[in-house]
Design goal:
The chain has about 575 residues and is an alpha+beta fold. The protein has 18 helices and 17 strands. Strand 14, helix 10 and strand 15 form a beta-alpha-beta unit.
């Protein structure tokens, strides 16, 4: 009995020691993991690497002369090394399948967190600024009104700020466009117009708090909080931009084509534009003393312009003679026939990717697709700047299948084979590299500075990203199941025909008027602004030789898959 008791006691002691050891090991492992995660966040926050950090290159790729692209953003070259390395291409064995950039892309997925944490203001400061703006720009609250996204009353201009919308922000935006009323909905959407909505709603139905201003009401679900805009109309009117669209042949029956008209002796462009703006039409058409307002339609598509001499006046003339031709101007009013968007009501059976190299125009293509189809596009990543500008699919899980297609820059076999089909968007690598470099250093809408272009990061960037441009196309050609290849330059030049191809590939039917609306709003909110150097050439001859080799490789691969080759302007520089 004593012997058995002794064995039990010995076993329990060993068990206690074992439990103590496992607990200590668990705590140590947790501590190491926490330190590692902290170090990773700090490294990502610094947006770079040490000067001598270079990732290893697989042996077989090293023999081919292909450099493994660096995984972190714009690292510096090791001192004493050459800035560029050319790929050795063996014509006997065809193009090499270049290295993918999955390590960089894993960081892109985390960019949402860092961008939010970097841009977020303390709530008290943000609230103070919002109250200050409200105090500087007062307007009368007109009440709560019903809001139908398809039959909007306030449709002069529409924009979103899904993180920092305030009443003052919306009022100021509408005042700059000389509108009389500003309406807010869903806490983040702003609508401008000159006419109050007809149907009033109960005050308590406007209960959504403004995203950027605590305590302020910004509409509700299908409800608008409407404010008057108090600003001198004359001062605001001077800031209204009227854009000359050209001279066009007038339709046979102008009164049937255009819903509003005005006949005025000594009619001027400014008078016609102001009249059409008040009527909230995006086009002002002048023929002699006649003014017509409307939209681009099948009867009047604005595709084939005429010689300006046929309108018997210059674009800057204060009037135009009548006849078979007319002068067309774009008013500040937004064409809202294609701005309504929503998520798919049922999950899509076909999982479609919108794939491109960074800087190839993916955001612009998403803008076109969303406005043409009326459905949101998703994203493999989370970009706060895009979400904040109205791309609501950014925050939806990319595998939800509630979006019409999903943006991705991935180029690995596993990532590609997850999709049933893909629109492969390709852009001239010279333009793509410059666009992505601008985005890295100045965001979606700015330009990198001369200091950025002349730094060591630029040649290293070209060396790394040029191979990525090629490998992205090559691997999608190799592993993609069903592809529609779209060249950015052709989409820009022939918008309607190419957009029709994309929409048909997505199995969506759209009207001609909606496509014309998209063409009228083709630029969206992501056209770069600011000082742009003319005839700027950042590429050295060594860089051109490197890029031209990749261009020829991709062109050969496209033709090998029975696609049309790259546009002639790509090759060679």
């Amino acid at each position: 009995m004593a012997k058995a008791f002794f064995r039990l006691q010995k076993f329990l002691r060993r068990t206690q020691f074992l439990l103590f050891f496992l607990t200590a090991a668990y705590l140590m492992a947790g501590s190491l993991l926490l330190l590692q995660r902290t170090r990773l966040v700090l490294q990502q926050g610094s947006r770079g690497t040490s000067a001598n950090q270079v990732l290893p290159v697989p042996e077989e790729m090293g023999r081919a002369g292909i450099t493994e692209p660096r995984s972190l953003r714009s690292p510096r070259l090791p001192l004493g090394t050459e800035a560029l390395q050319e790929p050795a291409l063996d014509p006997r064995h065809g193009p090499h399948w270049l290295v993918s950039r999955n390590s960089e892309l894993r960081q892109l997925r985390r960019r949402w967190f860092h961008r939010l944490s970097g841009e977020q203001e303390p709530l008290q400061t943000a609230g103070f600024k919002a109250r200050k703006r409200t105090a500087e720009h007062k307007g009368t609250y007109m009440g709560c009104f019903t809001h139908d996204s398809r039959e909007r009353t306030l449709k002069g201009a529409v924009f979103y700020d899904l993180r920092k919308m305030t009443v003052a922000h919306c009022q100021e935006a509408c005042a700059e466009r000389a509108y009389s009323f500003a309406g807010l909905a869903h806490g983040a959407e702003c609508y401008c117009g000159n006419t109050l909505p007809a149907a009033a709603a109960e005050p308590e139905q406007c209960s959504s708090e403004c995203r950027g201003e605590r305590g302020s009401v910004c509409g509700g679900v299908n409800r608008l909080s409407v404010y008057s805009v108090e600003q001198p109309r004359a001062a605001a009117r001077t800031r209204r931009n009227v854009i000359y669209r050209g001279c066009f042949r007038a339709p046979e029956n102008l009164t049937d084509t255009f819903p509003a008209s005005l006949i005025q002796p000594n009619l001027t462009v400014e008078m016609c534009s102001e009249f059409c703006s008040k009527k909230e039409f995006p086009l002002a058409v002048v023929r002699g003393q006649e003014c017509y307002c409307g939209y681009p339609t099948g009867r009047f598509p604005l595709r084939e312009g005429a010689d300006g001499l046929r309108c018997r006046g210059s674009p800057n003339a204060s009037s135009a003679a009548g006849g078979q031709y007319c002068l067309v101007y774009q008013t500040p009013v937004q064409d809202t026939r294609c701005t309504d968007r929503k998520f798919l009501t049922t999950k899509s059976k076909v999982f479609v990717a919108l794939s491109s190299f960074p800087g190839a125009g993916n955001t612009w293509a998403r803008h076109l697709i969303e406005h043409a189809t009326g459905y949101y596009t998703g994203s493999y990543y989370f970009d706060g700047a895009l979400y904040n500008k109205g791309f609501k699919g950014e925050k939806d899980h990319w595998r939800s299948r509630r979006t019409i297609c999903v943006k991705t820059h991935e180029s690995g076999k596993t990532e590609i084979e997850m999709f049933d089909s893909a629109i492969l968007l390709i852009r001239n690598p010279y333009k793509s590299l410059m666009a992505e470099f601008n985005r890295k250093y100045a965001g979606h809408l700015g330009y990198a500075t001369d200091r950025n272009w002349k730094s060591k990061e630029w040649p290293d960037f070209v060396n790394s990203y040029a191979s990525w441009w090629a490998s992205h196309v090559l691997e999608w050609l190799k592993y993609g199941k069903r592809l529609l290849v779209v060249h950015y330059e052709e989409l820009k030049q022939s918008l309607i025909p190419k957009l029709k191809e994309m929409v048909e590939f997505l199995n969506v039917t759209v009207t001609e008027d909606r496509l014309l609306c998209v063409e009228n709003n083709r630029d969206g909110s992501f056209k770069r602004s600011g000082a742009k150097q003319k005839n700027f050439e950042p590429f050295t001859q060594e860089m051109k030789d490197l890029i031209n080799r990749y261009i020829l490789t991709v062109d050969e691969a496209l033709r090998g898959r029975n696609f049309s080759g790259l546009p002639r302007e790509y090759v060679p520089r």
